[in-house]
Structures are given as C-alpha cells and as structure tokens.
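Our consortium's second objective concerns turning raw sequence data into structural hypotheses that experimental partners can test. To show how far this objective has progressed, the report includes one record in full. It was chosen at random from the queue rather than selected for favorable results. The single chain below, 287 residues long, was entered without modification.
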Amino acid sequence: MIYVGLTGWGDHDSIYPAGTKAGNKLEAYSSHFPTVEVDSSFYAIQSQSTFEKWIKQTPSRFSFIVKAYQGMTGHQRGEIPYVSKQEMYESFKDSLLPLIEADRLAMILCQFPPWFDCKKEHVDVLRFMREQLREYPLALEFRNRSWFNAQNYERTLAFMKKEGWIHTIVDEPQIGEGSVPTVLHPTHPNTTLIRLHGRNKEAWSKPASGEKWREIRYLYDYNETETQEWIKNVKELEAEGQNVYVIFNNNSGGHAAPNAKTFLKKANISYENLNPRQLNLFDGEDP
C-alpha cells in the first residue's frame, strides 16, 4: 500500500476552500490524504488532549507520523526542559497514548542533525533511543553523508535492519557531507518512509547572508520527469511487499500539496473512506 501525505496541514492553502479556519484545516486535509507528518512534536512534546482532538477530526483510517522531540535527537542546544533523559522519553511516550489506543500511529520519525555523523558514540545514541522506544515503529533519517559512504553503506543498512529501524529514504540536494543520497533499500520487513525535500541546492545549507533560511530551504517544485521517477521508485518498493509512506516536505513555496496531488493522479492512486470533500465554490475538480 502507498500512503501519500504532507508535512503538517496548516500551510497548504491550495487544497482548502476559501475562508477555511485554522481549526478546521486538519479535517479538510484528511479529505485529500490518508496520513500526515506531525512537525509540532519536534518543537514541543504535545499533550494527550491535542492528539485526542486530532483523532476526532480525522477518519478512522487516517494515520500520523510523529516527529521525535528535538531533545531526543540532539537538535536542541543547551539544557532540555526535563529533569532527565528518562523523564523526557516518558513524557513523549505518554503523549502518544491516544494514538496507540486508536491505532493511529504510523511511526515516529527520528531525524538527526547534520553534525550527527557515523561514529561509535552516535551508534550508541541510536541504540539508546531504540531501547527507550522499543515498542514503537521508528523511522530513522540521517542528515550526514558519512552513514552512506563507501566504508559504512552496507554496515549502516545492516545495523538498521538488525535494530528494527524503518529506513527514511530521502530526496534532497546533493551538496556534500550535509546531505544524504537517495538509498532505495528498505530495512524494515514491511514499512518504508520516503521524504521528498526538493532539490534546492542554493538554500539547503544555511546561507551566510541574512536570508530567512528556513523559509526558503524547501523551495522546490517537482517537475514531470522527477515525479515519474519517484512513482517508479515507490511502486518498486511496494512490489517488494512494503507499505510505503511518501511525505512531500517541499512547502517553502506552497508546492507540496500540488506536487502530492499530481503524484497521486499520475500514479493512479485514490483513497476511500477519507473525510467528505468540500470543493471550492467554483471548482469542478480537485485543486
């Protein structure tokens, strides 16, 4: 099965009827897609009541990919707002209980920073996280090329397979150590995550100037050739017995939703039992 979705639901205005309120966007989003990546959990561990609200706004087949809290992946500089790592992990796990009980958790996305390179100290970090979250499906995304260099390529994949990690296959600019190649190799028995970040080389690394880096980093519009390339990749993974989750993260310019809709149309993929669709007043077809 192929599940296509986007990162978050707040910024994809092209799929919402005019005047859709912020509080209704998830309900509208889940009339188009069967899954979503929750990015807010990276910045702060969410409350159970928040997840309960989101569950009520979405159909029973809808699932959430929850991004791991930044204190768990080493992005957060300085002290974490918890007494201990154990307390942090317990708080994170506690927040997920509504998703677990409703069978709505697709996976936890553990994305590590560019300085998280391949060395024993960092392998130990991965083992610690896997142990702390051993009862959950975990997807692993690297941002440092050393994990897939000639020396470590096979060892990294073997490690992920042994430890039960879901491989997060990425499409991103190739600009050196701060980027990871597309490695079309599943490591989990039945699940693979694909994150499409775009190919904006100029904006991928933080520029020296005062540009608003985070607002332009994912500025990219996938063209016809690139879309067909990824349809082929995804269907080959599905043919290997994988449930493939495809997340479009190229939303700096609002391209993620249109690109995802184009992907679905050209791949001849449709979903049943989503939320009812509310069309724009003068639209006769999907935006």
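The partners drew two points from this record. The chain has one domain: 2-266. Confidence is low (pLDDT under 50) at residues 281-285. Both points have been shared with the crystallography group to help prioritize constructs.
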